Amino acid sequence: MVKVPDSLPARMYLLAYDLRKQKMSKGRAELGYVLRGAALTELYLDGRLGEERRKPVPGTPGDDPYGVLAQIAGSRPRSWRYWVRKDGKELVDRVRDELVRDGWIRVREHRVLGLFPRQQVTVKDPRVVKQLWGGASSALRGRPVAHVHSYDAAAVALAAAGELTTVLPRADRRRHKRRIRELTARTGPAPAAVRRVIGEQNVADGVA
Q1: Distance CA 116, CA 105 (A)
Q2: What is the spatial distance between Cα 198 and Cα 192, in angstroms, rounded to a whole number?
Q3: Where are the beta strands (DSSP E) in the chain?
Q4: Which candidate, 76, 73, 72, places its Cα nearest to that of 86?
Q5: Is the pLDDT of residue 208 over 60?
């Protein structure tokens, strides 16, 4: 068994990595929505975040590794969508730096055409990504939903909501629509908020 990161945002970052193309499959904005959704989901699944009137509220006191709970506690009640949108790019940077620090990935700075700064991300051990894929695939096709590990269920729900084709190509999202819906119901409100935010972004990009 290959070891994988403990945090759900770190797992979703790695699941967004395209092993074939050896690069991230999403830009910082969309990836930020997925990672914020993952951070909210992790807090919700652990009971550190609850819900009242369809808005997240602080739950049982506990760790707040990405500062999301503190943001919610210090704010008036706001929608899940608001918190998915909040500081997404900053969370991408934070999770990336965490993965670099802990030895999961390496990042090389370079410039496209000698002008535009870019970061090239490389996963040090592709087996880690494959292990995470395996968990998501098992959740999608394997045991009864009630017996699926909560983080594997969340990975499928967030990958579907965030349109991570590295995990769920469009054909699989259509084929397994019912199963995805059941796994999403187990995961909490954040994936639905991610789906709506991504949908709004797609509409805005189409208009533009």
Answers
A1: 22
A2: 10
A3: 17-18, 23-24, 49-52, 55-58, 105-112, 116-123
A4: 72
A5: no
Structural domains in the chain, sorted by start: 8-199 (1.10.3630.10)
Residue 55 phi/psi, 5° resolution?
-130, 145
The residue behind tokens 């208009």 is: 207
Q: Which amino acid is at 58?
A: P
Give 10-20 pLDDT, tens digit per residue: 999 999 999 99
Its pTM stands at 0.93
DSSP assigned state of 147 = G
By C-alpha distance, which of 156, 138, 134, 158 is closest to 147? 138
Tokens of 85: 């949108």
Q: Is 46 exposed, middle or buried (0-12, 13-18, 19+ CB in 10 A)?
A: middle
Q: Do residues 187 and 157 lie in contact, with contact meaning Cβ atoms separated by under 8 Å?
A: yes
Find how far residue 99's CA is from the centre of its chain: 14
Mean of the pLDDT values across residues 50-67?
95
